[in-house]
Amino acid sequence: MSGELVLDNARLVLRDEVVLGAVTIRDGLIHDLERGRVGVGEDFDGDYLIPGAVELHTDHAEYHMRPRPDVEWEPTAAVLAHDAQMTAAGATTVLDAVRLGSGPDDDAAATARAARRLTEAIIGTRQADVLRADHLMHLRCEISAPDCLEQFESYADHPLVRLVSLMDHTPGQRQFESVDQFKKYYVGRGRMSETEIEAYVDGLGEQAHADAESTRLSIAAGARRRGVPVAAHDDATVDHVIQSAGLGAAIAEFPTTVGAASAAAERGLVIVMGAPNLVRGRSHSGNVSASTLFESGLLHILSSDYVPSSPLQAVFRITSEGTASLPEAVRLISTNPARAVGLDDRGAIEIGKRADLVRVRTTGVASTSRSSAGVVPVVRSVYRQGMRVL
Asked: Which of 198-202, 273-277, 309-313 has the lowest average pLDDT?
């Protein structure tokens, strides 16, 4: 990688301030920063230039691979479509969630095959150098599944693995502490009927009783041994957080209550919440609002979760509401997630960092949705290591 590129007349969103200036990129890195216009290079016409988003939790690649029930899409095409969508949303680094572990009604072989097809597609497209963003892997471990530990061991040594999360979606646990809430959620989304849900809940409970805790311990130990950060997912109580911290978790993904988030922060865990929750003002599953945590100083990272464009939208929402400065808001999607998984070479507009950059203009038109008020950001171009990819 060689050559020099100058991006001029941009509002640079730095770590603690926004300044009109220019960025010089050389050999894929930020070589120089200057205040004021320099009169050479590409004129950004006063648009914002922000560090590229570092996405820690998205399972959108799986959605592209299975766009409808019983429809399996070609995995390479699915990863390319997912990559394009994430890049257009301002993400330059994406940790793709790979689900490990099958449920009681799942075809275990099919679940394992889906994980293998996804990882092979990520690896293959990286090797072919056809991806816009830098794609890494997040192993999403459903610890109640009897085949989860075996699958974890088959992927854990791959160098693309940068995050391991411990998940337990058993009714009565964590995200679904209320069994009735679990039933309402799954029936309401059309995943199964009222007559099917009772047997499914019973099967999940039996499966979790047999495998969950030993698998939780083994996977956490395996991740620590490999130096991969561990995330606790959906902790709901102080006891959950104490257990997660004892296992070496450094990240608290989507704590479901203020109490759990407070306990996580007290123990030094970095708290991740879904940006759709913040944009909508509430959780889709009835748990704590991300806005509540943010206003309490209990939110450090935003992830796209199930809406790729939501982190950037959340940034400009809280900025327009005056609850955070633009640099503070941008750190939630760039600097903080990069640091949480040890990617210290990116996530900020600073000399020596990777030139992973996003040009953003706001529409100046308020959203028509009362639940997502604020200006709507538009991604105009994206650079990864100084190369324009969008």
From this structure: 198-202
What's the confidence (pLDDT) of residue 371?
47
pLDDT average, residue stretch 84-99: 98
Task: Please give the structure tokens belonging to residue 283.
Answer: 């959780």
The residue ranges of DSSP E strands in the chain, in sequence order, are 4-13, 18-26, 29-35, 42-43, 48-51, 53-58, 91-100, 134-142, 161-167, 230-233, 251-253, 270-274, 301-303, 357-366, 375-384, 387-388
Nearest Cα to Cα of residue 387 among 41, 18, 133: 133
Q: Are 215 and 143 in contact (CB under 8 A)?
A: yes
Q: How many CA atoms lie within 13 A of 84 on its CB side?
A: 7
**Burial tier of 389 (Cβ tally within 10 Å: 0-12, 13-18, 19+):** middle
Domain-wise residue ranges, the chain? 52-346
Give me the amino acid identity at 202: D
Q: What are 231's strand-pairing partners?
A: 165, 251
Distance CA(103)–CA(370), nearest Å, equals: 38
Domain 52-346 class? Answer: alpha beta
How many angstroms separate the CA atoms of 235 and 343, rounded?
25
What mean pLDDT, rounded, does the chain reach? 90
Whole-number pLDDT of residue 168 = 87
Interatomic CA distance for residues 113 and 120, integer angstroms: 10
